[in-house]
What we know:
Layout: H1 10-41, H2 50-76, H3 85-105
Helix pairs in contact: 1-2, 2-3
Amino acid sequence: MSSLPPPTNPYKIIEFYFIRYFCTVLLILGTFGNTLNICIFTRSKLRSVSCSWYFLAATCENFIALYVGCLTRLLSTFDVNPRTTLSASIYCKFRSYFTYGNLSAS
């Protein structure tokens, strides 16, 4: 189902498992934290505070960065990635732009 890197390079194996398990934990905790932020900053008392709107926008940016950056990397460990060179080029540019753009915006 998922292909492991060649066993001749132990660093690739460590990287493979680190990405698979760290990204899973990061997605779960990040989704939970961002969902709590949205629940807190959309309360009626905080809707009138301009700073809470900024934090709400930053939370939405973090959601995008989390799912574009981490989910796509996690799926690549399960062999779910673009195969053709054109789609891989577009995919790579899209992923880099949205990941780093959203991280810098938040």
